[in-house]
Structures are given as C-alpha cells and as structure tokens.
Write a structure and sequence with these properties.
Helix content: 55-70%
Strand content: under 5%
Radius of gyration: 30 Å
Structural class: mainly alpha
Distance between the termini: 65 Å
Number of strands: 2
Amino acid sequence: MDLILTIFLLVLLTQAISWIGQSVLLDLAYALYQRLFNGAKVAQQRSLKTSILNTKKELLETSAQDQFAKWAKLRRKIDKELAELEKLNSELGSAKTAFSLKFNTAIWIFTTGAQMVLGWWYRKTPVFYLPKGWFGPFTWWLSLPFAPAGKSRIGPLSQLCRDIDPSDLGSVSCGAWQMACKRVITMMERVIRDLYDSAEEAAPQEPIKQE
C-alpha cells in the first residue's frame, strides 16, 4: 500500500474514533467481551439482584414480632446475597478496569502510536513532490523536518515530474501530509454535519394537536 494512502487511512481512523467517541466504543467492546467471556457471571449478578429485591419485598411484608423466625431467616438470606453481590461486583469491576486499560492502549497503538512510528520511520522519505512554485516561499515548510527534495517515486506524480529539474521540486513530509489529511477530514466532517442539521431543519414537522 502506498505511503500516501496508509497515512490517510490512519488519520481517517483516528478521526472516526474521535467522532464516535472512545468511551462509546469502549462500552460496545466491553459489552461484547462480557457476553463472550463473562456471560455466566453477568447472569449470576442479574439473578442475585432479582433475588435480593424479591427477598426485601417479602421481608417488608413479614412482621419481626409475630414471625420473628421467618423474618430472621429472610434477613440472613439478604445479608448473604448482598455479600455475594458485592464480591461479584468487585470482580466484574476489576475485569472492566483491566479491559479498559488494554482497549485504550490498543486504540492508542493503532492510531496515535502508528502515526508516530510511521512518521519516524519515513521521516526522510517524501510522501510526494510538488513544484515549488505552487506554494511560493512556503514550499520548504511542507518538507519539514527531514524530507529531501528530488524526483517523485509515486506513480502519477512521477510521470508528471519526470521532466522537471529536481531542484524545482518541493517534497511533502509525512508530518505535513498528516496535518493536511486531518484538516481536510475535519472540514468534511463539518460539511456533513451542516448538511445533516440543514436537512433536519427543513424536514416538515408534525402539527401539534390541540385538545
């Protein structure tokens, strides 16, 4: 896969996660994880909660003076189930904390971390080249920090620039291309949101029924 497309897809993935919300993705992933690996514990937790509610209801309907033996038995049952529920909640809470740490680490590795590694590995490799005259004196800024000047190695741009003197070409570095991709994707997001808001405002509203 070309470097230009790889960087674009990484930036797109990062922005998509930002739009959706990492916490939302975490909740969805953890719900799936719970269903696959902790289904028995979740079912036990639900069963204990239901049992405690039913037992508490029965306890309220039982007189501590007239039916003390039954009342004491129900009280002991509630205390036992509450202790089991607290222990189970603690186990599930610890599991969620560990899962959150692994999930957030994985998200960072495949987005920010991958972009950092890619930028460092290809720090001296131009993503593509542009004629210096296109951006005037600011062309040098696009090659920061280490991208050199020279002929393009990337398909169409290589054909376009093959007859141009290398000294007349300005290179675009990974960092500059990442920033450009992020800027364009952010602008596209705003346009889509504005179109969506406009469509909602233009949608006919149902008339309010008067009694």
